[in-house]
Design goal:
By secondary structure, the chain is an alpha/beta fold. It has helices at 4-13, 152-160, 199-209, 224-234, 255-261, 296-314, 363-367; strands at residues 20-24, 37-38, 48-49, 53-56, 67-75, 88-92, 104-107, 112-114, 117-120, 130-131, 142-144, 165-169, 173-178, 183-184, 195-196, 213-216, 240-244, 265-268, 273-274, 280-284, 287-292, 325-329, 333-334, 340-348, 351-354, 371-375, 381-382, 387-392. Helix content is 18%, strand content 30%.
């Protein structure tokens, strides 16, 4: 069995680079930049007011105050203002260009207006409430580096630097092949001994969340020929094949043997983690293969730990592996040493409450979890109040 970190490193280092494509800006959320996004012009493109108020020249404030200036003209967003006349003030609104000759803005709350006259109690500071041209970005500077996974705020920045399209990494094509005669589609008529397939829909959603394009292959039965046929069909036209179930050592665990029969080469098939020890990784030609265990919690946790970082690495994500945080344990957590443990837990502030049910088949405990608590393989457990490392599920 490979240690967790070794297995993750080998998987990440095997990630092939996806080609790039031009994508409409509005469709870029969660995608990864395939080039540095450069500012082609200064941002902002002109000096403008950060407040509603009055644009003035400090040279008008001579002698003792307060000062009374005639209000001449108006500057509003979307229009050029006339130059500021000597010893006058210009009414100005947030986002409006600073008139030529003005060097400060006084917010309207500090001004007393009487008809065409405005009274100012103090001399404004030079540049007060003015956002300067190029204050955010200078022309030719990098707005976002290559490998950035785009958030809504970064989509906004791309729009601000006047891009309608972005060069992004192609989304990896991922085929999901669930195995087992006990599986049926959710919502279909139940039959004795069958269960709804929860892994297929869940993994498809996780693939999409990691930037991939998921496709659910027809499920296979528990015969060698059916498994082999299913694998051959599923391997066509995808960048990553996910198999679910059948990678352990039971009499009906046929996936490893069937993979060998279709020409796949496995690099490893056991990892020192709990849950999810029977994890297989390999390739057939240019297609990577990740074989997940069949129990829902095991399948979904192992894909979160290995599959999602792999998909992000394939897209050139600068941070494919989620950062880890820490919390305090509400209650003691016992751990059998030998494998790295990933325990489902809810978070309340900085407190981690470990789920009572940690069974590999429990989809409910994972659905109600906020984080996976990470316990080292040599640990025998942690006491209440101890600090524990964690991976937030929202960071995957």
């Amino acid at each position: 069995m490979l240690p967790f970190e070794d297995a993750l490193t080998r998987i990440i280092e095997s990630a092939p680079a996806m080609t790039s494509e031009r994508v409409e800006l509005s469709l870029g959320i969660g995608r990864v930049l395939a080039e540095d996004l450069m500012a082609r012009a200064p941002l902002p493109g002109f000096d403008y007011s950060a407040m509603d108020g009055y644009a003035v020249a400090r040279g008008s404030f001579t002698g003792a105050g307060p000062w009374s200036l005639t209000v001449r003209g108006e500057s509003r967003a979307g229009a050029l203002a006339s130059p500021l006349l000597a010893d006058t003030a210009c009414r100005i609104f947030t986002g409006a260009p600073i008139p030529e000759g003005a060097d400060a803005v006084v917010m309207q709350e500090e001004v007393t207006r009487d008809g065409e006259r405005a009274s100012f109690p103090a001399t404004p500071a030079l540049g007060a409430h003015i956002r300067r041209r190029g204050e955010d970005l200078q022309e030719g500077s990098a707005a976002l580096p290559k490998g950035t996974r785009l958030t809504p705020f970064q989509i906004g920045l791309a729009a601000a630097v006047d891009r309608s399209e972005l060069l992004l990494a192609r989304r990896p094509r991922v085929t999901i092949l669930c195995t087992g005669e006990e599986l049926r589609s959710p919502g279909s008529p139940p039959a004795p001994g069958t269960i709804p397939d929860s892994n297929g829909p869940s993994l498809a959603a996780m693939v999409a969340a990691a930037g991939g394009l998921p496709a659910l292959a027809p499920r296979t039965g528990d015969t060698m020929q059916a498994t082999e046929d299913g694998l051959r069909a599923a391997l066509r036209g995808c960048d990553l094949l996910l198999t679910v179930g059948g990678v352990s050592v039971g009499e009906h665990d046929l996936v490893r043997a069937a993979l060998a029969r279709v020409g796949a080469e496995l690099e490893f098939w056991k990892v020192q983690i709990r849950p999810g020890k029977p994890l297989a990784f390999g390739r057939q030609g240019q297609t990577l293969i990740l074989g997940l265990p069949g129990n829902p919690a095991s399948a979904q946790i192992t894909f979160a730990l290995f599959g999602m970082p792999l998909l992000r690495a394939m897209q050139g994500d600068r941070q494919p592996i989620p950062t880890r945080g820490r919390a305090r344990l509400q209650a003691a957590l016992r751990h059998n040493p030998g494998r790295t443990g990933f325990y489902r837990a809810r978070l309340q502030g900085d407190l981690a409450i470990t789920a009572t049910n940690q069974a590999s088949g429990s989809a409910a405990s994972l659905a109600h979890a906020d984080a996976l608590l990470v316990v080292p393989p040599d640990s025998t457990g942690l006491a209440a109040g101890d600090s524990v490392e964690l991976i937030r599920l929202t960071d995957l």
